Amino acid sequence: MSTQLEARQPALVENAEFVLTARDLGVIARIMQEEAGISLSTAKANLIYSRLAKRVRKLGLPGFAEYCALVGSSEGAAERGEMIAALTTNVTRFFRELHHFDHLREHVLPPLLAQARAGKRVRLWSAACSSGQEPYSMALTVLALVPEAARYDVKILATDIDPNVLAVGEAGVYDEAALEPVPAALRRNWFTPVNGGSGRLRANDELRSLISFRKLNLIGSWPMRGRFQAIFCRNVVIYFDSGTQEALWSRMAPLLEENGALYIGHSERVSGPAEAQFANDGITAYRKRGGGVAA
């Protein structure tokens, strides 16, 4: 069925097993924009092909025309989720952009953890947390200052659109190589070897208890009602168009307490109406200004 249809259109990827046409890419790009806020262009054709050809093959479909028909149908809801997961970039590592964790440790956490010891709540959010290295780095930064933090009302919300990477984060098991950026003392105190010499380590119960992993689409509805004292939203809005970026910052501003910290990616900037709500406080670090907040 696809061969006649696809033969009339040039393939975007040369010498490939399946034909990916501009029409196919348009269907995929529209769904990704509507459901995940992610902008895709023909410049991403090779990446799209390499990630989705596996899905086409696994489903036993003749080609991308049939795959697009599936994900565009009411029966394709589950596969749309698989497609979004496959096309979501999950590049992450422990203590990535170390200056943010230095800032968190030196300027944000000390007063918050003093309040926690006095019985007050502390809430941090890792938005687009991928496979968990970012929220674990946040939790380790907390534990470096207050090793008994699990006794207090200190919680980190870790969210992502991809349930597959959330499962990795929830399990808290990582290769020794992945844990290399973690200081040796923190690795020793908060991780336990898995199966003897397997070369893998698991976050211990106290460390894992600080983090709650939840599925969340950043352009969908947000169930959170309480405010956060710090939000990490790094290296994700670069995949959104400018209007979606501005809307995202405007939604985050009311969720930050006054003087709360916002950390973003090295190539990102707070833009749009929310820009006036924030003051620069270091390299891609911001503080929420005082006063009223527009919803």
Can you offer a commentary on this structure?
With 295 residues, the chain is of the alpha/beta class. It folds into 2 domains: 2-87, Chemotaxis receptor methyltransferase CheR, N-terminal domain (Chemotaxis Receptor Methyltransferase Cher, domain 1, Orthogonal Bundle), CATH 1.10.155.10; 98-288, Vaccinia Virus protein VP39 (Rossmann fold), CATH 3.40.50.150. It is 41% helix and 17% strand. The protein has helices at 2-7, 22-36, 45-59, 64-71, 77-87, 98-117, 133-145, 163-171, 184-190, 205-209, 242-252, and strands at 122-127, 154-160, 173-175, 191-194, 200-203, 211-215, 228-233, 256-264, 278-280, 285-288. Helix 7 (133-145) links the parallel strand 1 (122-127) and strand 2 (154-160). Helix 2 (22-36) packs parallel to helix 4 (64-71), helix 3 (45-59) packs across helix 5 (77-87) and helix 6 packs across helix 7. It is globular, with a radius of gyration of 21 Å.
